[in-house]
Amino acid sequence: MQLAMINDEMLPLDKLDSAYLDRGLYFGDGVYEVVRSYDSRIFALDEHLARFANSLAGIEINDVNIEQIRKKVTAAFETAKIHNARIYFHVTRGSAPRDHNWDDHIKPNFFLTITELPDFAGLKQKGIAVLTCPDLRWKKCWIKSLNLLPNILARHAAAAKGCDEAILVDDTGLITEGSGSSFFAVSGRTLRTAPLTANILPSITRGYAIKAAENLSLQVIEKSLTPDDAKNADELFLTVTTKDIIPVIKFDDKIIGNSQPGTFTQNLITEFLKFTRTNTKT
Predict the structure, then answer these.
(1) Is 144 a catalytic residue?
(2) First and final CA of the chain: distance in angstroms?
């Protein structure tokens, strides 16, 4: 008899809920997005859905209607009635018996959660500490894949050292990005961040931070940094969908600036928030 076992319960395999046969569970065979809202309005949904479509195409899930995803997201958001929400959703290739190859006819699975975002004002006022870790991810980080094991191991290593984020460093000694964020340095009136190559996620918040910097007449240079470059910068910060712009005041063992969020970073936080009032969907 073919059977399954869930914790201590055994049951015939043909009675198993298809959710347990999801290729996302077996292989991380899917892609995801995280969107947020400000004051009951979803921010940058068009950009997130465009990236989601690119991620789907990148792993050859070709039969997902993005407009239907938009309707699901907006309907769920309107039902949840959470003013400042984290909206997570993913699509996997579907449910099927475990096999590395896939049947082109299986139906993709969609999953979504909406939760309330905590207030990150304290982090923006105080700043955070970060720790460098080796970048062990795959070579197509532009795809927002469910395969996040290297990211979470790096984040856990950082947390064990009392740090809030891991900054990933590749085999050539260059910073790529954070385990769940984009990484920026400010020196003088120059803002520097890694260019969008295959090993960098095209972060939506990253793009708006660059626009904010241009509005403040900062010179933007998309060029990778070394850890030493970061340690010698005037200011450092991260961008991430759920937290916007977060100042970094400690990089490994080096205090950045005077242990306080820098002036340009604070100005960028203010400038970024202007976008949240104009590029939102009800």
Answers:
(1) yes
(2) 52
pLDDT tens readout for residues 26-73: 999 999 999 999 999 999 999 999 999 999 999 999 999 999 999 999
* 112 bridge partner residues: 89
The angle subtended at Cα 176 by Cα 172 and Cα 182, nearest 5°, is 170
C-alpha to C-alpha distances, 260 to 121, 161, 228, 264, nearest whole angstrom: 14, 20, 20, 12
- pTM assigned to the model: 0.95
Contacts for 4 with CB less than 8 Å, ≥ 6 apart: 10, 11, 12, 13, 16, 20
SS3 sequence of 224-257: CCCHHHHHCCCEEEEEECCCEEEEEEEECCEECC
Q: Residue 189 corresponds to which tokens in the numbers above? A: 């009136």
Helix or strand holding residue 41 (H, E): strand 41-43
Which domains, and CATH codes, for the chain?
14-116 (3.30.470.10), 121-281 (3.20.10.10)
Structure-token match 């923006």, residue found:
124
Select which of 81, 107, 126, 144 is catalytic. 144
